[in-house]
Amino acid sequence: MNFHNLLINWYLQNKRDLPWRNTTNSYHIWLSEIMLQQTRVAQGMPYFFAFTKEFPTVFDLANADEEQVLKLWQGLGYYSRARNLHKTAQFVANELNGVFPLSYKELLKLKGVGEYTAAAIASFSYNEAVPVVDGNVFRVLSRYFDIESDIALPATKKEFTALANELMPKDNPAIFNQAIMEFGALQCVPKNPDCAVCVFNSSCAALQKKKVNLLPFKSKKLKVTNRFFNYLIIEDVFGDTLIQKRTAKGIWHNLYEFPLLETAEIAGFDFVSNAVQKDILSLYTIISMEDCRESTIVHKLSHQHLHIQFWKIKIKEKLQNGVNLTDLKVFPFPIVLYNFIEKEEINSQKNVSLR
């Protein structure tokens, strides 16, 4: 069919040189696909190199400590991916002797591997004729064929999967899948694509009908929850501070944080001060408390907006289980907290040099 010929020719001329495209190693392909979920290639690339250097094989990843994996993942977000990655590596290493399942259906049984990731691994590693369907594919096909089906509905995914399967050359599914994903990432972009230079500009139905910016259609809007986090940066007489592990299910599971006071709205000094003295630090003598206004931030996650304030508190006594400030960076933190730690470290060094 002319569609796949044009698409593949475009790909061969315009594709990016990405490390996971130069191999059929299922471990590397699986690693890259998990990392690139909800993540841009430019952001994910350094993490791919870091992981393949630190964990050259699935056995190395399986034998790593979870905190080591989370630390290396720090800043990539969606940390459940890292935890699932680690568990799947352990399963593949210990139960499958380090060999990834050899088919799409078997790959689907792995933790953290959905239809898209299984299709990507199966086609790129084993050249199995299964189409990949992600946001890029939705966009390309909906525009080219003028499909107005709601991509938020499960039935629509089946519709696009069937269409992609029909278009895909069965003798070379891997290159077709790579091509349509790359075309959506580089050419048929979400906003203001340059249709004048598109290889499909004479046959794209959406372009002819002036509907390019209307497709794909998605009805469901994600409800965003606002949460208000007050992090307490406690410093004792020896300069040690206090951190805790987030063990509850939810965001940042198994990452570290400072003691947290969550409030229903942005909190003022008096409210936080009273809460700290009555409950959190009732056994200690507070010398001073400071609102770090310059570090206040709104950290946006896909489904939550976190309004984060930092409060510096000095106490007279020694903390139980205190952590030296210089040791903080070895722990896996959410990136917003890690950035705060780095900023404080830089400020501290500046202050020392000015003395």
TrEMBL record:
It is an enzyme of class 3 (hydrolase). CDD domains: ENDO3c (cd00056), NUDIX_DNA_Glycosylase_C-MutY (cd03431). Keywords: 4Fe-4S, DNA damage, DNA repair, Glycosidase, Hydrolase, Iron, Iron-sulfur, Metal-binding. Its cofactor is [4Fe-4S] cluster. GO terms for biological process: base-excision repair; mismatch repair. The keyword Hydrolase applies. Binds 1 [4Fe-4S] cluster. InterPro entries: A/G_AdeGlyc_MutY (IPR005760), DNA_glycosylase (IPR011257), HhH-GPD_domain (IPR003265), HhH_base_excis_C (IPR023170), HhH_motif (IPR000445), MIG/MutY (IPR044298), MutY_C (IPR029119), NUDIX_hydrolase-like_dom_sf (IPR015797). It catalyses: Hydrolyzes free adenine bases from 7,8-dihydro-8-oxoguanine:adenine mismatched double-stranded DNA, leaving an apurinic site. Residues 35-186 form the HhH-GPD domain. PANTHER family: ADENINE DNA GLYCOSYLASE. This is Adenine DNA glycosylase.
